[in-house]
What we know:
Blueprint: E1 2-7, H1 11-16, H2 18-25, E2 30-34, H3 36-41, E3 50-53, H4 62-79, E4 96-101, H5 106-115, E5 119-123, E6 134-136, H6 144-149, H7 173-186, E7 193-196, H8 209-217, E8 222-224, H9 231-238, E9 246-248, H10 255-263, E10 267-271, H11 274-282, E11 286-289, E12 307-309, H12 333-336, H13 340-356
Parallel strand pairs: 1-2, 1-4, 2-3, 4-5, 5-6, 7-8, 7-10, 8-9, 10-11, 11-12
Helix pairs in contact: 4-5, 7-10, 8-13, 10-11
The chain binds iron/sulfur cluster (SF4).
Amino acid sequence: MASLVVQTSFLGDVVLTTPLIAELAKRGDVDVLTTQPGAQILANNPAIRNTLVYEKRDRDRGLSGLMRTVRRVRHTGLYGSPPPSTGDTRRPENYYETAYMAQGSLRSALLALAVGVPHRIGFDTSSGRAFYTERVAYKPDRHHAERLWWLSMSDCADPPLPEQIRPRLYPGEEERRVVDRLLEDAGIPRPYIVIGPGSAWGTKRWPFYPELAKLVADHFPVVVVGGNGDVMLGDTVIAQLPSGRGLNAAGRLSLLASAELIGRAAALVGNDSAPQHLASAMGTPTVTVYGPTTPEFGFGPLAPQSATIGLANLACRPCHKHGPARCPLGHWRCMRELSSRQVFETLMRTLSTAETA
Length: 357
Ligand code: SF4
């Protein structure tokens, strides 16, 4: 019997679901229903049999898109592979015994119900919980990777070891080749430091990465990662660096190639955002800069020798689950009062801990 993992949340959540997937793969086949970026980041994962894409806000939006996805998932569960373009005459071999609802929306719950998966397990706090057959306690004081991992365990199981809840990504030969060429063309030697200055939420973007990059460039080359929307931000970060000391790779790499680039770095410095999860999955020491959110929400770095930094005594912190678009108080002190020197010193301490580990 196979399992279906439903995870159509943000990219970081998809990365944090990989320990759950690895645990389930010890028991049988695992298929994953996720977003297009999620499918890209999960490529080559040896624990996954099939990755199915549900573009809930694009191609598959609305009821017709939902039902089309239901048919695709049902076929994959029955036959062990996605529907071919021509008629399929194979006999059904296996079916999903359990759906693990790593994403807890009502829509996802209805999808798993419509697919016909008999056991549907999710958190007792999720919007779709009325349609689950088993509700697992959401543990607010644990890392989210651990919370997701508990979906596969009974309450009496031993807590996981750190290695059991560390996410994993699997860049392949193509990603290695692309990163080799990128670094070689730019003349960037190892060791280098990766900076991830972007975030989908405006208040989570620490504004002093250009100053930090100047401090770092006296010791290491700096490489910026990010998506297409971070290209201008990346240009700003490396603008004042001497020739050969900075490279803006934002918008130039696939998600898995970005993971490969991060995996080769001495450390990553970034916001409470997707790059820190890529670093966790690649085991790269991480410094995460926190503003309106805190590590206690359960989304901090998991790589060994990682650190977090944020203003400890600011009464308005944290102010939002994700980080608002604008500071509701107008002053944005949580980020503006964190200096580049403080973050640089945290990075240097992290590097020296990693060296002696
Ligand atoms: S209210 Fe406080 S924690 Fe929230 S964005 Fe403003 S300064 Fe940061």
